[in-house]
Amino acid sequence: MTGNWKCNNDSLLLFAKTNRWRSDSLNKYGYQGKWPKVPVKPYILVNKLNYLELIDSFDNGEKGIQRLKLTVP
Q1: Calpha distance 52→12 (Å, rounded)
Q2: Which of 27, 39, 68, 72 could, after both became Cys, cross-link 52 (CB 3.0–4.6 A)?
Q3: Tens digits of per-residue pLDDT, 13-29?
Q4: Residue 32 region by backbone torsions, left for phi larger than 0, else alpha for psi between -120 and 50, else beta
């Protein structure tokens, strides 16, 4: 996914411009007749104490939480 990042208080917002799968064959043929969509709303990553949190909404109404934790070797 590519796009523009903006900062708003404790959040990072990603305004997507393109969206592609990692697999070239999926980008060419799709997955069960579907291709990735460019979302209208931005992705919002909230800065928590030691990680970023992204709450996703899926087409079927379910939600998922992704946590991106910074690890320093």
Answers
A1: 9
A2: 68
A3: 999 999 888 888 887 88
A4: left
